[in-house]
Here is the input.
Amino acid sequence: MVENFYYAYADVLDTGDVERWPDFFTDDAVYRVTGRDNADANLRLGLIYCEGMAMLKDRAFAIAHTEMFAPRYLQHHISNVRMLGIDDAIIRAQANYLLLETVTDEPTRLQQAGRYYDRLRWTGERLLIEERQCVYDTIIIPNCIVYPI
Amino acid sequence: MVENFYYAYADVLDTGDVERWPDFFTDDAVYRVTGRDNADANLRLGLIYCEGMAMLKDRAFAIAHTEMFAPRYLQHHISNVRMLGIDDAIIRAQANYLLLETVTDEPTRLQQAGRYYDRLRWTGERLLIEERQCVYDTIIIPNCIVYPI
Amino acid sequence: MVENFYYAYADVLDTGDVERWPDFFTDDAVYRVTGRDNADANLRLGLIYCEGMAMLKDRAFAIAHTEMFAPRYLQHHISNVRMLGIDDAIIRAQANYLLLETVTDEPTRLQQAGRYYDRLRWTGERLLIEERQCVYDTIIIPNCIVYPI
Here is the structure.
């Protein structure tokens, strides 16, 4: 079930449907993208930080309606999905991701490798992300990160 | 079950046993390899197109018995396997693939990233591919595609 | 269960906890890292060869306590996990791995692509590796292999 949820999340991003991205989060969700050097040092500073649905929707809207960057295809390859614990309706889970980026007329490149650290909430009907921390190994990232991870 | 089927398919290609590749298809199968730009535009033109077992076998035979290209190792890494629907004996499914290629004495490179869009048929005994569309993000492909994806 | 075992193994290596790596093996385990050219030719010569717990622990200790190489992050992406047979308490299994390496201040690179060929033993409580052969496609490996695969 966790795998399916992750794959559906990736699908929305990879098919360019970024305005549906906030649908995967709870209203009070925290979303953070941080380098592994920072995460290992317990520094909470991140490249991207969203707290709550308004910020998530704002970010998704901004991306969907700006064209400040070259067109590209994305693919999130999710692997090593692990459930680490279940406590009532809360699941702690992690997974590796490989983000591949293809700018038109260039070869596909490894944009970043990283790991999701998640707290998922089961609402009784579906899973939602209560907290997602994306920790990337790739400190030097070719091009800026435009889209959510 | 779908995962196992996909991994067995990849194994046949990755161990160089291409003449067993048609065994994964129905007699009336359609197999197509298309760039994402074409697929998004609903253009059915593809780099590779096979319709029916005779064409599949013909292609497999040609690859197995020609040596017009440098020896190489292949690996298909399949991820994000999703079952999208089941209707009687027909399963619609998709998965991401990462095709890695190692030409002897060169570093391993990302040959292409793409996605399978499949219609699988359950024969009562085993799964077979009724339609497989391989849609690759990597428009610029280092070297031609020799093998099936 | 095999997937979870593989992901836990990868996690220990990827979080830099190499001294826990031997915990995944039986006391009489064999661990071997070999190029695909050698493996295909049934040559047992390998880049790394460990037989028995003492050699595994010795290797893990040496890595944990030397600093002869630049700091780096590793990620093992495990895919295409296949159980090939079960005989009593012995499971034969295989999986693809993609080893990504990020040396500080450099882009993430594909260190090697390869495959695990395993014999796993179920002790009644947990799985352990009785034999692991890591066969890599990437004959030219950027930098030496420092860590276990």
Observations:
- The beta strands of chain A are 25-35, 48-51, 72-87, 90-103, 109-122, 127-136.
- Chain A touches chain C at residues 36-37, 77, 79-82, 96, 98, 110, 112-113, 115, 137-140, 142 (CB under 8 Å).
- The first helix of chain A runs from residue 2 to 14.
